[in-house]
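FAQ

Q: What does a record look like?
A: Structure on top, sequence underneath. For example:
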């Protein structure tokens, strides 16, 4: 069977979600998928980006990451979305990309794919789950198949978020446990998507 195609589409201002996205891409690749790692376009004005040195540095450091487009969504069998938590919701930059997808949705091109999501917030109770659930609202509208990590691997009992890999950025960069949770989430997405593809091909 043709390998599962996974797009990891994310927004990150200061690198935490980018690190999770890289781990998810790695997990999917190791599970045998073809992977596209894509950032969404920055919508904040240059003055805003420049006002925070760590934000400006991250933009420079990820200049070589391709920007997400509709072709990535069409190509993928499964999409993992990553976003910082912003007032308990996905970042506007990711929403801006999602809100360009009306024509794809209208033509049924987003339906029947597998979707999963991960996030970072500054604090432990800062809205990670509300962010992931808010993204899921879109997956329902698209007719997607939501695949959360649940507690399907021992790492989930350490990292502790069945809704999707979540990182508390106030404590520093993602730990190896959190990165492993992202890899596990991606592996699970690949496994479920492969089973769906095989079932559809049969
Ligand atoms: C406008 C704005 C709103 C935010 N809202 C929240 C929030 O509701 N809860 C929280 O814990 N952190 C919040 N944060 C912190 C971000 O979630 C945190 O900086 C982000 O997860 C870091 O990810 P990144 O390094 O990939 O950009 C907010 C940050 C900004 C700029």
């Amino acid at each position: 069977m043709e390998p599962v195609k996974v797009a990891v589409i994310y927004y990150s201002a200061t690198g935490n979600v980018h690190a999770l996205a890289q781990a998810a891409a790695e997990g999917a690749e190791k599970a045998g998928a073809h992977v596209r790692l894509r950032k969404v376009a920055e919508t904040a004005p240059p003055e805003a980006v420049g006002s925070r040195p760590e934000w400006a540095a991250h933009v420079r450091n990820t200049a070589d990451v391709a920007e997400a487009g509709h072709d990535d969504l069409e190509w993928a069998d499964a999409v993992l979305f990553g976003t910082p938590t912003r007032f308990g919701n996905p970042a506007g930059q990711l929403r801006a990309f999602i809100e360009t997808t009306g024509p794809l949705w209208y033509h049924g091109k987003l339906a029947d794919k597998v979707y999963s999501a991960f996030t970072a917030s500054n604090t432990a109770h800062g809205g990670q789950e509300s962010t992931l659930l808010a993204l899921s609202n879109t997956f329902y509208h698209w007719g997607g198949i939501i695949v959360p990590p649940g507690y399907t691997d021992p790492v989930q009992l350490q990292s502790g978020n069945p809704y999707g890999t979540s990182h508390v950025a106030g404590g520093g960069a993602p730990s190896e446990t959190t990165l492993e949770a992202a890899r596990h989430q991606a592996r699970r997405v690949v496994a479920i998507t492969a089973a769906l593809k095989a079932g559809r091909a049969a």
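Q: Is there anything notable about this one?
A: The beta strands are 5-10, 34-39, 78-86, 89-90, 114-121, 145-146, 166-168.
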